[in-house]
């Protein structure tokens, strides 16, 4: 079903010598690395129309890759494994600092939600004390921002005032809440949009006060100026196609806008938090 769509479990991938500078063959495939924000098959289905659009616009194969988890995705960014990258905004800052060229972001803010079961006794996030909260990954932008929000606004500290546990994906975290396996989950409006309506109807979201720019597309400079221009033009025009409009609708996205330096700086404090978490092993 996904003839040209490849899954790379990058957790086991070793750094490649010369990954920062060696150009790919002119006619070779472009490797698009996707943030593992939802289940792998759902992610590949969601982005397959974008892959087709890029292949047609660029006249060369495009392969989709994801990672086993956010840690592996971050390591792949650091190793320069991707030619084109779709990543969380705070990871985008780290990629930018390593030379990746920012192109676009989704035209909306990344807004963490704390999701509880419909009918829950939890009527506001401040009532999560002593509860079990699940998240896709503590390095995820949604989780980093939500943790900061709960601490700043409600005085709740992860692993002290509530239990914060990792599950396979953002979608898995919402499903855990919907079936009663967790008291709350960290999610986002776009993740909820991508879930079946029957699951959405079984949960109630609380919206975070803190926001961040949405996921970013960046390109590795090894592709060269001509290819980077072509990729920029192809991404910029995706919303003008029927396939692109269907892709945005299915993903709960509102189109693309160019990444500004202000977006990078807005996300930078959270990138710094991720660096601290990584060094501490948490």
Automatic annotation (TrEMBL):
Signal peptide limits: 1-19
Record-linked SUPFAM superfamilies: Periplasmic binding protein-like II
Keyword Signal included in the entry's annotation: yes
Keyword field: Signal
Entry keyword annotation includes Secreted: no
Origin superkingdom: Bacteria
Name listed for the protein in its UniProt record: ABC-type phosphate/phosphonate transport system, periplasmic component
Organism of provenance: Paramagnetospirillum caucaseum
């Amino acid at each position: 079903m996904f003839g040209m769509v490849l899954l790379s479990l990058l957790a086991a991938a070793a750094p490649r010598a010369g990954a920062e500078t060696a150009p790919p063959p002119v006619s070779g495939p472009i490797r698009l690395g996707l943030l593992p924000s939802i289940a792998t098959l759902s992610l590949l289905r969601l982005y397959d129309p974008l892959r087709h659009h890029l292949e047609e616009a660029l006249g060369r194969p495009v392969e989709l890759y994801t990672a086993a988890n956010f840690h592996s995705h971050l390591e792949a960014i650091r190793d320069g494994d991707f030619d084109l990258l779709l990543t969380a905004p705070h990871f985008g800052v780290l990629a930018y600092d390593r030379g990746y060229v920012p192109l676009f972001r989704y035209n909306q803010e990344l807004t963490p939600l704390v999701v509880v079961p419909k009918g829950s006794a939890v009527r506001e996030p401040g009532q999560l004390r002593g509860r079990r909260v699940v998240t896709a990954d503590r390095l995820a932008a949604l989780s980093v921002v939500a943790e900061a929000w709960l601490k700043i606004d409600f005085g709740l500290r992860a692993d002290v005032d509530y239990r914060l546990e990792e599950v396979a994906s953002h979608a898995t975290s919402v499903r855990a809440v919907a079936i009663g396996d967790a008291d709350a989950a960290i999610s986002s409006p776009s993740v909820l949009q991508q879930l079946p309506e029957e699951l959405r109807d079984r949960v109630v979201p609380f919206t975070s006060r803190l926001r961040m720019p949405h996921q970013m597309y960046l390109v590795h400079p090894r592709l060269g100026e001509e290819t980077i221009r072509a990729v920029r033009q192809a991404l910029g025009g995706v919303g003008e196609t029927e396939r692109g409009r269907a892709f945005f609708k299915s993903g709960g996205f509102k189109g693309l806008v160019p990444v500004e330096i202000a977006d990078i700086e807005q996300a930078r404090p959270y990138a710094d938090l991720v660096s601290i978490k990584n060094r501490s092993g948490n």
